[in-house]
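DM from R.C. (forwarded with permission)

"hey, sorry to bug you on a friday — could you get me a structure for this? deadline for the figure draft is monday and I only need the backbone to look sensible"
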Amino acid sequence: MKICHIADTHLGAGENHPKRGESGLTLRQEDIINSFIEAVNKIIEEKPDICIHAGDIFHVVRPTNKIIAIAGEQLHRLAEVHKIPTVIISGNHDAPKQPHIGAALNIFDHIDNLYISAGIGLETFTIGDTKLFALPHCLTTEIQKKELTQCVPDANYKHNVLIMHGVAAGMPEFSMADLGEQELPLKLMEQFDYTALGHFHNYCKVAEKSYYAGST
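My reply, with the result:
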């Protein structure tokens, strides 16, 4: 099975850059968007069995309409047009800080082959012989601890994959010094066939089968 794992695209970031392009966005915003599109193009070229986005597709909880439209177009290409099953979770930047707000990601619920975990707790998805445990950034550490207890590999599936966003526990070098960072237990990761992590912006191997993809 082939998995493509990306994270931390932070679409919309760079709004304070002094120069603007023809799109009306700043040159930095355009640069970040183009990096995301390049990543999507590469994933389509690779034709993986599953694509995983491990959080922070957006830089803020309430991205602009233009940024939402750009994200939707690319996710539609990836999941629906090219039929690559795509699982995405919310990260600490784009997760709603209050339950009633909802996540911008949920706008894309109508896209076929796109699996979204952006609520208050764990979502599990089945794709072929793989079970994916998609844990979005939680409202509180108490909720997170409760949800982590539900992350138990299922012996009925050939592959069990865990998706989380945060700081690998006991490894301060993976902190981004962001408010609301949450720690992710290493021992939990060891139980899974693969753990796809988001939050740290450089590609890095955390454990034998656990990786940060880094930011696009």
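R.C.: lifesaver. The first strand starts at residue 3 and ends at 6.
me: no worries. The mean pLDDT is 94.
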